[in-house]
Amino acid sequence: MRTLLLSFAIVGLLCGCSSKSDYGEARGIVCDATMNTVTIVTDDNDTLSFSTVATDKSGVDGLLLGDTAEITYRGKYEKGMGALKMVSYPQRALLGGDRDEHGCIGSAGYVWSEVSQDCIRVFEKGIRTESVRGDNRSVYIVFSPDSSQVELFFSDGQPNEILERRTLPSGGFAWNVEDDDTKNVRFINGLWTIEQRGEVIYWEDSAAADSSLGDWQERTYEGVLPAADTPGIRYTLTVRNREYSGDGTFVLAMTYLEAENGKDETVTYTGRRFTQRGSADDKDAVVWQLVADDGTVFNFLVSKEGTSLTLLNDKFEKPQSGLNYTLRLVQ
Q: Superkingdom of the source (predicted)?
């Protein structure tokens, strides 16, 4: 585990020369960075911010959120003080450290699709359908390249099901298997539905299917937020919605840095995004409420420019700790 090393200045009594004890060092995960500043979260969950205007950056080859940074400074730490030198180390795990047997990167939201014969993000490639019972369960429908098969991805952990395309006597197609208990995927009244034994059990959200609400748009936000027992949690949140709709869907990957034996662990949530008005201290604030398929709820305050999100509690209140709880738009 990384440790925060703080050295306090010792004033020389007989000369003005600087000794090694005049310098301090800090090491942590980068949670925010601009052209002239950097903010890190240490192993002790301290959030430290430095100016990098006059910093020696010869040991930095690009700097990304989630990277590890070692910073040298002079004197007692103060927020926003100048960093003398900074060295960075790229994050370890996001792109490759958690590949499965097919080479799919779980922390980036990729899973193997048998009908696609590829690693996909069902959030992007699939059609989301939701339980008609309103119990937060969902199923993504993924078509093979020639549409001869569909693969069903269940949010409740059921094994994927692969259905074959069949021509209906009345015209059109259905995807199912020769089984009395088979599921039927059909396009009915402009919406994709999943039936079982003649009853609709999942259907596509009408707003998602309504092209009059504009084209699909997708945005991704990232940041490393404080955690109790790890150097931080890397949030990668992608939201997807029609241009003129306040609702949509999301996928959130939360990577707990050095969670188990020094290895990162990732938990992924998918679900619906709803836009609400008003927070605890601003009745005009825009808040995104993310309701995951397992019932977990996340609330994010949206900045006026839409370039950052701040995690709120269940009462729509901002954190009072003074630590960084902000995700920033990356694409």
A: Bacteria
CA distances from 171 to 44, 164, 174, 184, 188 (A): 65, 16, 10, 15, 12
Arithmetic mean of pLDDT over the chain? 85
Which pLDDT does position 50 carry in this prediction? 93
Q: SS3 for 65?
A: coil
pLDDT of residue 11: 35
- pTM reported for the whole predicted model: 0.65
Q: What is the pLDDT of residue 278?
A: 92
**CATH architecture classification, 215-329:** Beta Barrel (2.40)
Cα 7 to Cα 51, 102, 216, 256, 296, distances in angstroms? 19, 48, 52, 29, 42
Question: Per CATH, which fold does 20-89 belong to?
Answer: OB fold (Dihydrolipoamide Acetyltransferase, E2P) (2.40.50)
Q: Where are the domains of the chain?
A: 20-89, 106-204, 215-329
Q: Give per-residue pLDDT as tens, 133-183.
A: 888 789 999 999 999 999 999 988 889 999 999 998 888 899 999 877 789
